[in-house]
Design goal:
143 residues, Non-ribosomal Peptide Synthetase Peptidyl Carrier Protein, Chain A, 3% strand, mainly alpha, 2 strands
């Protein structure tokens, strides 16, 4: 079996396609969670703890060139090493929210699976007509 045909067989399996769809939807869902954290949750947390903007919390680890603005973006563009712990806090909160949402989704799916009543056992199918005729002939020959 050639490499191309093996790859085609692998790529067209159901699991690979399901995984691809999951990755695409997960990427889009990650953007939604990023927006929720950055635009809704972090401003509220910042307001509660003193109007902090977590994305601009950092420590400068080197010396900044004269005239460089002391903002995270400007320092990174100038090539100054920066310990950006505020960005890490934001990403960690994103992860926790995403993990919680996925946990709740899995919990609901498992609950729905448990609540579904088991299907009643199917009645055995009637034998085909030719089998019935053969049995009748067999029984008639026995008499």
């Amino acid at each position: 079996m050639g490499m191309v045909s093996e790859f085609k067989e692998f790529a067209l399996k159901g699991n690979v396609m399901d995984l691809a769809v999951g990755v695409i939807i997960g990427g889009a869902f990650g953007k939604i969670v990023d927006s929720m954290v950055g635009d809704l949750i972090m401003p509220l947390v910042g307001a509660i703890v003193g109007k902090l903007d977590f994305s601009n919390l950092f420590l400068v680890l080197g010396s900044a060139p004269p005239g460089t603005a002391m903002t995270l973006d400007a320092l990174k563009k100038a090539g100054v090493p920066v310990f950006a712990y505020g960005s890490f806090i934001t990403v960690a909160v994103n992860f926790l929210i995403l993990a919680f949402v996925i946990f709740m989704m899995v919990k609901q799916v498992n609950r729905l699976k448990r609540e579904a009543p088991p299907a009643p056992p199917a009645e055995p199918a009637a034998p085909p007509e030719d089998v019935v005729l053969l049995r009748e002939i067999r029984d008639a020959l026995r008499k």
